[in-house]
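Narrative of activities, Objective 1.

The group set out to show that a structural description can be obtained from nothing but a protein's sequence at a throughput compatible with the screening campaign. Below is one input-output pair from the validation batch, recorded exactly as produced.
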Amino acid sequence: MSMPMTTARRLVELACNAPSVHNTQPWLWRIDGNQVRLHADHRRQLPAEDPDGRSLVISCGAALHQLQFAARALGWTSEVARTPRGDDPTLLAEVTFERGPASSQPVNDLAALRRRCTDRRRFTSWPVPDDILERLAGEARTWSAAALPITDLVSRFRLELLSNEATMLRESDPVAVGEQTAWVDRSDHDGVPLKVLPRVEQNAPPEDRRNRFGPGLVPETRTPVDGGDGVIVLGGRGDETADWLRTGEALSALWLRATRDGLSVVPLSLPVEIESIRFAMAESVLEGAFLPHLAVRIGWQAIGRTGLPRTPRRALDTVLLA
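Output recorded for this entry:
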């Protein structure tokens, strides 16, 4: 059965709700009958913060997963050729669809796609149990990525030290800081708007004033934080485009599972953006198990996300190739 163009367009539109570095949305799509091709939009790459394009490809991998997730909810099976060989270096995946059974909870699955967002407000002090973190990591591993919850105190302490060091190194790099700032409140279709960033009170402690994107407009909760959030590191044995794409798919799978479970997810990308810190993470936190591509914080929010503004999205026709 041929996929109607209206269905293909809807799937791409749903996939474009995926998270991306600085909400750059660095993807382009081509629809050809029952096949959808995913391309990297290198015009949206961050040359100072992401010179190798790792975060760009992870972002595209997240969109690739959401395309497959949405298709299954609507009753289509997906066959994916990742990083296919060819003359186009921007081509990341070719997805071929066939009619199949819908997921067992299509309404809930589509609702999770729409609810998923990055809530940067402080987490509550309620701890995330280790078994929940392992379940989320297991969800990520089903997409052929490595995933490890960081639960022991020594590893958490090392990761915190490396994260603080990464923050200080980034703050001392004016080019990277300028690039980052350029994506804050950038436009009505991309970037990180002030309306989704937490407001910082004048009497807030120093650690709450340090926000990668600066203060915003969202009222902050006053619940104290005592390290109850969990951390999961995602990565792989390799460090190439195919590995990063898998990490992006794993990120999306983990995030949607967390959304359905009532948890919030915030990417912790700075420690992996600075190569010296990333390799120190691999050795001192992961003990050489795999190469880290991204870390995420997992926690509970005291206030629901229903009233939290969503980040803007590019119009569908601007991401579709003829």
